[in-house]
Design goal:
Elements (H helix, E strand, L loop, with lengths): L1 H27 L9 H23 L4 H4 L4 H29 L14 H21 L8 H26 L6 H30 L3 E9 L3 E8 L12 E6 L8 E5 L10 E6 L16 E8 L12 E7 L3 H13 L6 E7 L8 H10 L2 E7 L9 E2 L4 H7 L9 E6 L2 H13 L7 E3 L6
Parallel strand pairs: 7-8, 7-11, 8-9, 9-10, 11-12
Antiparallel strand pairs: 1-2, 1-6, 2-5, 3-4, 3-6
Bound molecules: flavin-adenine dinucleotide.
The site of flavin-adenine dinucleotide has 23 residues, from strand 4 and strand 5.
Length: 443
Amino acid sequence: MKKRSLIKGIGWGVLYLFLTVAPLFVMLVSPAPGQREFWRELSVSFGFVGLSMMALQFVLTARFQWLKSPYGSDVVYLFHRQISIVAFLLIISHPILLFVFSPSTVSLLNIFTAPWRARAAVVSVLALLGLIGFSIWRKTLKLDYYTWRIWHGIFAILAVGMALIHIELVGYYLNTPWKKILWLVYAVFWIGLLLYTRLLKPLWIMKRPYIVVDVQEERGNAWTITLKPDGHQGLRFHPGQFAWINVRSSPFSEKEHPFSFSSSSENTETISFTIKALGDFTKTIKDISVGERVYVDGPYGSFSIDNHAHAKAFMFIAGGVGITPMMSMLRALSDRQDSRPLTLIYANRDWESITFREELESLKRTLNLNVVHVLEQPPHGWNGKTGYINRDLLEGLLPSGIQKNDLEIFICGPIPMMNAVDGILGSMKFWPGDYHSERFDLV
Ligand SMILES: Cc1cc2nc3c(=O)[nH]c(=O)nc-3n(C[C@H](O)[C@H](O)[C@H](O)COP(=O)(O)OP(=O)(O)OC[C@H]3O[C@@H](n4cnc5c(N)ncnc54)[C@H](O)[C@@H]3O)c2cc1C
């Protein structure tokens, strides 16, 4: 599985690079429209490559599981964020180079007198500035997540759409019919993708609703909601994966939230999510009533034991509500009567707030499971681990002489904990392909 995933990952990477530079081939292929200065061609090629990258962002965020599976959703979102900056710098270099080498072109910024091709370019760049600015300073600007998502979509469509109109109106590199066709295919693909993500997919999700059959309070200010498919077969997932759920709103709205499945993947009747009441939406989970309709878009992610079936043992490192994907994996392993050695290192503030505390104890009876609780504020007389998960603790629990691929480690919890554990495992020269993390802060 790992090798196949690696080959797939490299394959997508190569295709991404090819599509990014594809417009340059169109530029170079003869017949060239005519000789122009080097700096002008350079500025245009920066613009083309930047635009390609921007358009490909729609593919990255379209939630194609087949595309994300070799990397994991968090890696794809991280790439999406970083590559946006590169694309922005390339696109902005296009007008800057023009202004520097041909100062008279600055007059094109005046949208009252400029031709339409320049107006389209100005709107595209302004939308791009809005896109980047709102994303970097969302929290500083106190923009709530939903408003940000709506603007993010509008700015992205405007930036790419206006840039395509700009290319069409300039028409310089559309000097032969087949070049025109190539750009048309590009535009049609882009519009098709938008139609799929904004119309077809929400429609499909709407036709497959779920009904809430149980809402249960858990330790640690969390609530488990259990859903049953309403009039369809439901979905199958791998333990550890997640889905986007929509409560009291349609799949067309932006009001969806990602949550890991906490139920066993072996249960084909119902699915459960365990949600910690932390913010505006999650605090309302406890008010959901049995019988309410919920929409589920998933499964997504590659954070799963099923991607590492070869492993001789598994270790789970969880903090707080980061237990949810681990719980799904442990429940599935129990249902499958798996006898491999399992270790769960579970960090919490105190003994009372340990979500699934009792069930973890009972899972020890069906699984070969060692649970190590780490408490920040231990109760009086506690003789277990205290403080935070650190190097000493991990070294003490990791078996010596582990070979590559023998032990697979899954990490999920608060960001400082995940960064610390990633760093410790890296510095212990643990094989990077053998430890996996799920980050709950995608945006
Ligand atoms: C892959 C994945 C799996 C997750 N699994 C679980 C889980 O099993 N249990 C659990 O309790 N939490 C889980 N989360 C976290 C959960 O999605 C967020 O805590 C929740 O969406 C925050 O919403 P809120 O309105 O309550 O919080 P708010 O306080 O309003 O928002 C807090 C922050 O959460 C983020 N956020 C808000 N809304 C969304 C949204 N619609 N989509 C994405 N991020 C958002 C934003 O960065 C925001 O600033 C998971 C997150 C991810 C990415």
